[in-house]
Amino acid sequence: EIDIFEVFSSTNKLSPNIHKWYSNGDHTMWAIDEGNSNEWYEFQNADNLVNEYHTYGFEWTPTKMTMYIDDKDYYTYDLTKNFDNGESGMGGFDAPIYLIFNNHLFTESSSYKPYSGCEVHAPVLPAEYAIDWVRLYQKNDGKSKLYLAD
Fold this sequence. Notes:
- The chain is mainly β.
- It has helices at about 30-35, 45-50, and strands at about 1-5, 15-20, 25-30, 40, 55-60, 65-70, 70-80.
- The mean pLDDT is about 80.
């Protein structure tokens, strides 16, 4: 799982993350396993995230994944570094993936919450976000691969 951004009910912060999922249902996350809990992009004020459109980017190479906001990189994952203490390699991050847009919310009754205070309360619902367009690119370098569904 590759998260270009997650909001966690914040009005001004976005967090990237990559996850490894295992056949037994367990998973690990880069932010937790590497102790990188402070990796995020912070907008100068809440109106920038809540009331404006932004361009979110993702560049994926054999050795790194870089997340962008408005053409500025805000976090890079080094895919040559294994983040689950050697339990598995990073091979899952060189395989085709599905593109999913999700508006997952944490409530008071959620079994998992990434941090205290990230809960969405009923008065602010319904929650929504708008996507203006999606565009995929492939570098013309003879090395890049773009996998398209049949």
